[in-house]
Specification:
Blueprint (H helix, E strand, L loop, with lengths): L7 H17 L3 H9 L5 H8 L6 E3 L22 E8 L2 E8 L10 H17 L3 E5 L10 H17 L5 E5 L2 E3 L4 H5 L2 E5 L4 E3 L3 H8 L5 H5 L1 H6 L6 E3 L2 H14 L24 H4 L10 H8 L5 E4 L7 E8 L2 E8 L10 H16 L4 E7 L6 H5 L2 H14 L4 E10 H6 L9 E4 L4 E3 L3 H8 L1 H6 L3 H16 L4 H4 L5 E2 L5 H11 L18
Parallel strand pairs: 3-4, 4-5, 5-7, 6-8, 7-9, 12-13, 13-14, 14-15, 14-16, 15-17
Antiparallel strand pairs: 1-2, 2-3, 10-11, 11-12
Helix pairs in contact: 4-5, 13-15, 17-19
């Protein structure tokens, strides 16, 4: 036996000391600088994300092997990204977290390979991946190998799309090519004041276009949650943001082969919803907040709204009904009368496709006057963008239940998951009006000559509008033709919807054999 070899206890002590050094990070000064920006360190974020004591790190001792530009003298452990897995509410999830204290969180070859391996592990385990993004983009000193590292991440984002949930949490800069990975994931969360995402920064924008703008004004949380639609949700601090990531994961299945986790029923399924009789005005032109309707019919009045501040004329939310997770899509009469436009169509279409990917049933609440008219909408491509929502619903195989509350006019009625495009069960309230267009507009078209030739055009128009409404727009017209399964008492809405969703929970639909569809762009 070689007496010069240190005993295993000494080797183990060296390991523990090395691990402690890695956990502390590069220096106390770097940690203080991170905190001074109002940001937590990568390890502090991981501690908030996972159940206490459950995180297991992978490749914590990894170091880069690049040379040149002084890199050979700077080889910190982890290479600026912490990877591993843990439990969130008792269920496994995987994470990679950029450590801004090391190379500004910039991605190099070893850094990228750690993320690649982590994503592959998540795929094999069938568990979600969360990216805590706080990095300065590609590591310039490593050149094209850094860019290739991004390519490997992007290809895995696409491969995992619809297979395991992918959540990106922007907690610092995310610029250039780095921004495309979050764009490929299912959800993007941002933090006000510290998160920025953009392809080209303010300096480049000013040099090319002459426009002056701050980093926050260009790619901060608020512009991305209100104007671009890049951010699904924004929060005031990192603690609140990570708590909401944990909550979102509690609503999602671990992968596309499972159903979303059920919880014990905390709100009676047969609870009457008498309040709906007063919440929704009978006058189809009167406004109301559809979120009040959603809160009345879902468990405990709680909804997790997606894109709350973007395309607000449609509401998309994850809720529980009878303990089961359901995706709700609802027209919002408070904004543009609930008409569908380009942004609302895109927002709802992607939400429908996400829910369908992960076996989450769909509930569609309809109160839509049509597609928003206008030159800007037509030239902006409302035809192809509206077709995205139509495609998403037609392609969905999860349980689909529709409730028509008031008006449902024209092509927008068809697009909002009508029976004709595959809705499983359709209900309507006694206030429903399903027609090609409103009675006044229809009368002006159908009876144009009679009105023009009348001695009293106004009186004639009013009479003909009344006749048209009584014959073609009464609340039972669609039910008589099998386009609505039942006209229900609004007070029974919750009970009827939950019963339908439970009945359809194990729905199976065969798809035609094909590589994939070619959805509208």
């Amino acid at each position: 036996m070689d007496r010069t070899t240190p005993p295993l206890r000494e080797r183990t002590a060296e390991l523990l000391e090395l691990r402690e050094s890695v956990h502390r990070g590069p220096s106390e000064r770097a940690t203080q600088a991170q905190h001074a920006k109002g940001k937590l360190t990568a390890r502090e974020r991981i501690d908030l994300l996972f159940d206490k004591g459950t995180f297991t790190e992978t490749e914590g001792l990894r170091r880069h092997r690049a040379t040149g530009f002084g890199l050979e003298a700077r080889r910190p452990h982890t290479d600026g990204v912490i990877t591993g897995w843990g439990r969130v509410n008792g269920r496994t999830a995987f994470v990679y977290a950029h450590d801004f204290r090391i190379f500004g969180g910039a991605l190099g070859e070893a850094h990228a390979q750690k993320i690649h391996k982590l994503m592959d592990l998540a795929t094999a385990a069938g568990s979600p991946v969360i990216g805590l993004c706080d990095g300065a983009g590609a590591r310039i000193q490593e050149g094209v190998t850094a860019l290739a590292g991004y390519g490997g991440i992007f290809s895995r984002n696409v491969r995992n799309s619809g297979v395991i949930p992918q959540i990106s949490v922007i907690m610092g800069p995310c610029a250039g090519g780095a921004a495309y990975s979050p764009a490929l994931t299912d959800f993007v969360f941002m933090v006000r004041g510290t998160s920025q995402m953009f392809i080209t920064g303010p300096d480049v924008v000013q040099a090319v276009t002459g426009e002056e703008i701050t980093m926050d004004g260009l790619g901060g949380a608020d512009p991305h949650s209100t104007s671009s639609g890049v951010a699904h949700a924004v929060f005031d601090d990192e603690e609140e943001c990570l708590e909401n990531v944990r909550f979102l994961l509690s609503l999602l299945p671990s992968n596309n082969r499972e159903l979303a986790p059920q919880v014990a029923e905390s709100d009676p399924a047969d609870r009457r919803t008498e309040a709906l009789l007063d919440l929704v005005p009978a006058d189809p032109r009167a406004s109301y907040d559809v979120r009040d309707v959603i809160e009345e019919i879902v468990d405990d009045g709680f909804l997790f709204e997606v894109h709350e501040n973007w395309a607000r004329n449609v509401v998309c939310a994850l809720v529980r009904m009878g303990g089961d997770v359901t995706g709700v899509i609802a027209n919002q009469p408070m904004v543009q009368a609930g008409a569908l436009d380009i942004q609302a169509s895109e927002k709802a279409a992607r939400f429908v496709r996400f829910c369908d990917s992960f076996n989450i049933p769909l509930l569609t609440l309809v109160d839509v006057p049509g597609f928003l008219p206008g030159v800007d909408q037509e030239h902006g491509g409302i035809i192809r963008h509206g077709a995205k929502l139509l495609y998403a619903y037609c392609d969905a195989t999860v349980p689909r239940v529709q409730l028509i509350m008031r008006k449902a006019y024209g092509g927008a009625y068809i697009v909002m998951d009508s029976r004709s495009i595959g809705c499983d069960v359709s209900f309507a309230w006694p206030s429903n009006e399903i027609a090609v267009m409103g009675a006044e507009g229809a009368a002006n078209v159908v009876f144009r000559r009679e009105i023009a030739a009348s001695d009293d055009p106004q009186a004639t128009r009013e009479q003909l509008v009344k006749e048209y409404r009584s014959e073609l727009m009464h609340p039972y017209y669609a039910a008589e033709r099998g386009l609505v399964d039942d006209v229900i008492d609004p007070a029974e809405t919750r009970a009827r919807l939950i019963d339908a969703l439970r009945t359809l929970r194990r729905k199976h639909a065969d798809r035609p054999s094909r590589k994939h569809g070619n959805q509208p762009q």
